[in-house]
Amino acid sequence: MMNAPKDNLLIYNCKEGWGPLCEFLGVDAPSVPFPHKNKKGSLFDELMEKSDIMKRMQLEALVVSAIIIAIIVVIVSLCVSLLG
After folding, report:
1. What are the boundaries of each domain within the chain?
2. 44 CB burial (10 A radius; 0-12, 13-18, 19+)
3. Which domain of life is it from (predicted)?
4. Mean pLDDT of successive 10-residue segments in the chain (84 residues)?
């Protein structure tokens, strides 16, 4: 980044909207508002709700957690039986 020619480098923040980006690319700004898809972190929530893969991952995480808890309960029970 330090060696990039200034006319080929755009340091850009999405909060700036279309202006700096379109100026850098040498094009007119679109007439539609700049998309702020993930402004409040909604992209993650939307992905979690709509994605079949994410739903499956959630289910698998829940199953693995239940198995781990069951194993811990069994180990504690065995220790109490042996020591008690």
Report:
1. 7-32+49-83
2. exposed
3. Eukaryota
4. 76 89 94 78 76 89 97 96 87
Q: What is the DSSP string of 42-77?
A: HHHHHHHHH-HHHHHHHHHHHHHHHHHHHHHHHHHH
| 21 contacts 10 by C-beta, under 8 angstroms | yes
Residues, the chain? 84
Give the separation between CA 31 and CA 5, rounded to whole angstroms. 30
Q: What is the pLDDT of residue 79?
A: 94
- 28 in helix, strand or coil? coil
